[in-house]
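We treat protein structure as text, and this decision shapes the records that our systems exchange. Because each token names a local backbone shape, the row as a whole describes the fold. An entry from our holdings is shown next, in its original layout:
>
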Amino acid sequence: MVTDDGMEWALYNLGRLYANQDKLDEAEKMFQRALQGYEKALGPDHTSALSMVNSLGIVYFSQGKLDEAKKMYQRALQGMEKALGPDHTSTLNTVNNFGNLYLSQGKLDEAEEMFQRALQGYEQALGLENITRYRPALITMCNLGDLFASQGHLDEAKEMYSRAHAGFQTLLGLSSDECQELEYNIASLDSKQGK
């Protein structure tokens, strides 16, 4: 992902740092500069440029700029499907992002379709053994669990939360924040079901 001088890579890393600190305006500027550099050096359809497009989509989503996020996700998804194929993990990460966008808009059927596509793709690309070591796949399981819980599909929600819990336990350990949150979600579902 590095061009001759590595400036775009540095801008990308700075953008990620700002995004992690919730300095979204600064992150947006860094990702835009990195994208311009990648497009100039490598072309707009290069996977590095498309990764920047996806990153911009995430920032726009976090800023509540849902129309801009959708445009970025559409561009990234179309480009990644063409460059990497529909089942590449980078493509699937964008598919998951689309699911989050649809979920935030209350488009639950579309959100479920995206989350299911991402999860099935991760399972095919990584295999069932390795999926528990791939954080984006585990996040997709959590997203599906949240979606199912919001729809009152408590058994399906519990299944997704349990699978994600097992994966995060393998990846990060039982005391991780992710495992603790999932244990809370599972207990909440159990109390709703009278268990």
